[in-house]
Write a structure and sequence with these properties.
The chain has 167 residues and is mostly beta strands. It contains 1 helix and 12 strands; from the N terminus they run ββββββββββββα. It has one domain: Methylamine Dehydrogenase, Chain H. 2% of the residues lie in helices and 44% in strands. The strands form 3 sheets. A 4-stranded antiparallel beta sheet has the order 1-2-3-4, with no helix packed on it. The longest helix has 4 residues. The N and C termini lie far apart (38 Å). The mean pLDDT is 81.
Length: 167
């Protein structure tokens, strides 16, 4: 669960009974009062998310980052009425994302059965794909559509204390 910046909306992540067997994760927005009236919901189906293990709202925004099965999903609440998946970061971990923290442009995350904390940097220009083996005199330049959620870079931080290996 997360609460909106103004405290009027609660975001609840999970699966409902109808989609529990299909592996579709959902985020539901409800009024944060005694009625918990559903405002909107979004089914995360751009990747195989399976389930949401952790969800956090970016301070100062109505943007949620959800840590799922290997991937991160980025969801925004638009006009206090519509939830929309606006981006994702695929294959950050080998299995379930157990926990993460978002600071500045960095997502520090820990995956199941991993001894490393991975650092994903948002807003970094993607590297061009490796050149194809065919040699061209005037290759066509690679152009990427700029998006604040699509560009990222990953690094790792060695954390032997997580698994107990101190040697």
């Amino acid at each position: 669960m997360e609460v909106s910046q103004d405290g009027n909306i609660v975001y609840i992540a999970g699966k409902d009974e109808a989609s529990a067997n299909t592996g579709r994760a959902k985020i539901i927005a409800c009024s944060f009062d005694r009625f918990l009236r559903q405002i909107n919901q979004v089914e995360l189906n751009s990747l195989d998310y399976n389930r949401i293990n952790r969800m956090k709202r970016i301070d100062g925004e109505e943007t949620l980052i959800a840590g799922d099965n290997k991937h991160f999903s980025v969801v925004e609440m638009k006009n206090k009425s519509t939830l929309e998946e606006v981006g994702n970061i695929p294959n950050v971990h080998q299995g379930d994302i157990l926990d993460f923290e978002f600071r500045d442009r960095y997502i520090y995350s820990k995956g199941a059965n991993e001894s490393m904390v991975k650092v994903t940097t948002l807003g970094v220009k993607r590297e061009a794909p490796p050149p194809v083996p065919i040699i061209r005199e005037n290759p066509t330049p690679v152009v990427y559509k700029q998006s604040k959620y699509e560009t990222f870079k990953r690094t790792k931080i060695e954390c032997p204390f997580i698994t107990g290996n101190t040697g």
